[in-house]
Design a protein that fits this description.
Elements (H helix, E strand, L loop, with lengths): L4 E8 L4 E8 L4 H12 L11 E3 L4 E2 L16 E4 L1
Parallel strand pairs: 1-5
Antiparallel strand pairs: 1-2, 3-4, 3-5
C-alpha cells in the first residue's frame, strides 16, 4: 500500500467526468488543485480558482491545508469546482 498517497474519486464539475487519482498526502490542497487544473484537465479555463470539496461531508478545503491534515482518505469522493 502506498503510505504517501491516497486514492480518491474526483468529479470535475466543469467537464462532467469522474476520475480515480492518487493524491500525495504531503502536498497542500492549493498545489493539488493547481496541478489538476493546469496539467490534467485542460478543458478547465486557466486562471480560474478551483476548490476541492468533499461531497460526503460538504467540506470545502482551504488551499493552505496539507492533505494529511484533512479528512481526505482512501476512497474519499471529491469534487473540483
Amino acid at each position: 500500500m502506498l503510505e504517501n498517497k491516497v486514492l480518491v474519486n474526483l468529479y470535475v464539475l466543469s467537464i462532467g467526468k469522474s476520475y480515480e487519482i492518487f493524491v500525495p498526502v504531503n502536498e497542500k490542497v492549493g498545489n493539488i488543485t493547481k496541478l489538476l487544473n493546469l496539467n490534467l484537465f485542460n478543458a478547465i479555463q486557466s486562471g480560474k480558482n478551483c476548490v476541492l470539496m468533499n461531497t460526503e461531508e460538504g467540506v470545502c478545503y482551504e488551499n493552505n491545508q496539507v492533505i494529511r491534515d484533512t479528512s481526505i482518505k482512501n476512497g474519499t469522493r471529491l469534487i473540483l469546482i
